[in-house]
Description:
By secondary structure, the chain is an alpha/beta fold.
Amino acid sequence: MRVLTFITRFLGLKSTSLEAQISEEYSRLSQCLDELTVVTEEGKPKDKIKIHKIHPIHIPKIYGLTKTLLFLLAPLRRRKQVDRVYVRTFSPPELTALWASKSLAGLPAVLLIAGTWLFEPKTLKNIIFRWILRRAVSASDRVILYSPLMLKDVKKYVPNLGESKVRYIHNAVDIDRFKPGEKPPINNLLYVGRVNEKKGVEDLIYAMKSLVPKFPNVKLFIVGSDPTGGAYIEQLKKLASKLGFANSVFFVGPIPNKDIPSYYQKASVFLFASHGGEGIPRSILEAMACGVPVVATKIAGTPEAVKDGETGFLIPPRNPKLIAKKTAVILKDQDLRAKMGKNARKKIEEEFSWEKVIPQLVKTLKEGASTKRILKHLRN
């Protein structure tokens, strides 16, 4: 089977963004396919991966339009060389390309919706983007969600989503790359992800207000980029200083994915306080694979991975005091920390490794591909 897919930059694990994780998935997926063609602005072919390079115009307000057009044209140009189109984002250029693949080129299409934040707030631009999403979902032969817990929120935006076409396949991690390491005898807390208000990073700062007096050596490491260009991080630094523990919070910035495992391996507890819009966050799975207990908000598919009291604790969003309370429970009890860490690693090995997930993804991609060939022969 020959599959066509998309990514803005196919740079592998040296990337500091979600593109690293997507690149890793494509590399794994390609090993189970006859051929995988990646439509991208940057990247090099490898093994069974071909590169279809595009060159959008990098001028504000023009870039997005030209990228969309070039993404759209790629499956039309390659319709005789591919059997299936796979899109794993709800970004409008990729969604438009998926719609064109099915509607104009007749290619079977699979859409993976990785989160439940679908174009908020309700601006005119986002209303248009939601319309594009509904067209893409309608054109898709299969729609993949990480968890049934996501379905209710997704259907708020796509009420016509037929559940017969939905398949549930977990997010996944490399359990050989993300694995337990030697833990230092200090209380390191860790967050990895985008540094913005939706991710609840400010809640983590407020949680430290209760933790620092109880654990004078506790440190919070925040790894990730600030979409505002640094303004939000400056706001958080001022807040930490105002609360009196600026020396206990470290903003590491974006880190290449290849270097991320060492941060998890030195963490005592992983914190994830997102307010919503998630699927099953990859950073939670990475932390668990490294044997780190997780304190996370109970949103979307997170409860599929974080089992309350077993692999960590689940809490409601926007509750810094409860973040601090549950984190303190883990920090005070080394036996509990070790038990939760062991349970977390086992959970990932059993349900969230590439070895478990890729075969499910390949099976879903193959569904309908044979039908396309039969119809083609009938027309001929």
